[in-house]
Amino acid sequence: MAVRRALPRRAGRRTNLALLGLLLLAFATGVLAYGVGTPTAATVVVATHGAAGLGLLLLVPWKSVIVGRSWPRAASTRSLATGLGVLVVLTVLTGVLHAIGVAPLSMLLFHVGVAICVAPLLVVHAWGRGQRPRRTDLSRRTLLTTGALAVGAAALWAATEGALELTGAPGADRRGTGSLEHGTDDPTAMPVTQWFTDTVPDHPLDALTVVARGRRTRIPISDLDRGDRVRAVLDCTGGWYASQDWAGVRLDRLLGEVTGTDLPGGGSVDVISRTGYRRRLPLRDASSLLLATSAAGAPLSGGHGAPVRLVAPGRRGFWWVKWVERIEVVDAPSWRQPPFPLQ
Ligand code: HEM
Ligand SMILES: Nc1nc2c(c(=O)[nH]1)N[C@H]1C(S)=C(S)[C@@H](COP(=O)(O)O)O[C@H]1N2
Ligand SMILES: [Mo]
What's the CATH number of domain 187-330, 3.90.420.10, 1.10.3720.10, 3.10.180.10, 3.40.50.300? Predict the structure, then answer.
């Protein structure tokens, strides 16, 4: 067969570089997917992620030839390379299992965990096999094959989506972020999710502290029910989302009342949980942020942030600080903080 004969001859440097490229793209878009919250951007990033990850499968025939060829003389690096291969297969498998939508949510956590283990192994594996750029890297043929790989990867992703649709798999309805619906209009059915190590505090607070323009104001929790409401989607990076009617007080209104003036155009606001968990948001977003005391008409439960939590429409769940204790207006820009919470 023509393909058979073409395989060994073509399998080599370019296959390995393509694999490396797809893995780096998958890793970068995976991390980026957690950073973007707006639906359109998330859809593009996550679709690219799926295509890059699935695209790895297209190169399996070529990579098998390379592995078969170098196996006898690669005794010293074999176990590391095998480990890397196993982890990559596991990463793709767990990603697809999550996308199908029948696995427990921990599948996505596992996916991210395994992918993080892939990174150091990939660095070690690719190190010492360093490749200098060649003039032919920009040749028409290279561009064509790269294009063919991109088209093939996109087609494989589209076919996977089509298969989910046809089989009626729950994953067919997942959000652009890849998250599955859990508890829309029913907050009791939402998973209680801590980012890393946080725990639900024992006693709810009875007041919120607001610090702005050198003034410190304590506001009783009972003063936060102002009838401001917003419908917004809480979309956890753990792979679930829920749309809810949230009610409480808009942040710009609260800050305006406390300071008695218009809010400055620049600067940020630190939203700090009683557990120490915190996020910094641009002050100009204050009019779309809500300090919520209830969801779907019922007071927040302890697990979901009682007595008051932040509702940050268009941002992933880790921005939605629970058990808010303190709000502080600061001059520092909002990018001056770790991109993801640390606790
Ligand atoms: C070597 C690195 C990685 C590979 C090869 C990979 C591969 C994949 C694959 C094949 C899928 C299934 C796509 C589909 O069937 O539509 C997937 C889904 C997903 N991955 Fe990764 N991934 C990697 C790293 C990451 C990282 C680091 C993150 C996050 C920090 C991440 C987050 C996700 C999410 C949220 C989904 C669900 C997307 C969806 O349902 O469409 N991945 N991944
Ligand atoms: N104080 C605090 N707030 C937090 C978290 C946390 O660990 N601690 N987790 C965040 C994450 S990752 C998500 S997805 C949402 C989950 O909200 P829920 O537990 O009400 O579903 O809360 C966010 N707010
Ligand atoms: Mo989350």
Answer: 3.90.420.10
